[in-house]
Amino acid sequence: MDFFNRLASDLGNSRCEKLQSPSYLNLALSILLVLGILVSYLPQHYRIIARGTSEGISPFFILLGTTSSTCAFANILVLPASRADVACCKVVSTFECAAGLLGIAQLGVQWFSFSVILFLFLVFFPRGPILPPNDAEKPYTWRTAVTVAVLCLLHGLIVIIVSVALIIARPHHLGTWANMLGITATILAAIQYFPQIWMTWHLKHVGSLSIPMMLIQTPGSFVWAGSLAARLGPTGWSTWGMFVVTGCLQGTLLAMGIVFEVQARRARENSEGEGTNARCIAGCIPGIVETDDEGGPVVEDGLTENAPLLNGSRKSSPPSYSD
Description:
Elements (H helix, E strand, L loop, with lengths): L1 H18 L4 H28 L7 H20 L1 H9 L5 H7 L1 H22 L18 H28 L4 H18 L1 H11 L7 H22 L4 H37 L3 H8 L5 E2 L5 E2 L25
Helix pairs in contact: 1-4, 2-6, 2-10, 3-6, 3-7, 3-8, 6-7, 8-11, 9-11, 10-11
């Protein structure tokens, strides 16, 4: 026990000395990363709210992404170096403390931003019985969305309980627990894009998935990986390799989404060039509805088969005809 106490004391002293001489270049880059992570997720939040539906987003993408972010955030919180940085805030200045905790802030912002996506996914989940409607083998219902939210909540509670218990009763096991969390986060992050790629391929449109978010995050993944590779070298492949894999998978999803968006825009322009006659027929004759650029039905009051539960109380008025 004395060995572990002495080791923790030496680590704390070295971390405090490091915090007292921060690199302003690293500080600036860390601040930019925090802001960049936050800004990169805002288009996705706006996309779901603006469309009023989370249609097109895979529940498994949400499940894997949220649990991965939770593991990554918990990993950096329980690391001995991170706990030493937090303890050093008692003896260093406020500026030095804030600069030293920016690494924790980065993963904290990522976890919070993805948790907001989970919340919006649940609130704006389509009220239709199946999502997507053309994939009968995968009945993504409201129960599926609730199950994803419950699993994410239970996973977060388990991680918190185990982490607190180890901090109180078995602090010398925290290093092993942190490694387990890091490996789990890496595996989940590496596979989280596969179900979304599969869904987008079958839908042939991105739905509520944000292309601007992927435009920011895809190159950002490679920049982050390059930064870590330059710092850790080839031996740190398990750390920066995750960002290379996720960058490639997200880039694949981005390319697919851009192709489908371009095809949809061309189809819409061609349909507009045919005149307003067909549009009037689609909007005026009962039983025939106009479709948007993503293949979904469009009606005047905005209530469709894929409308979220928030719009479930709205009723469409019957059409009236005049002589």
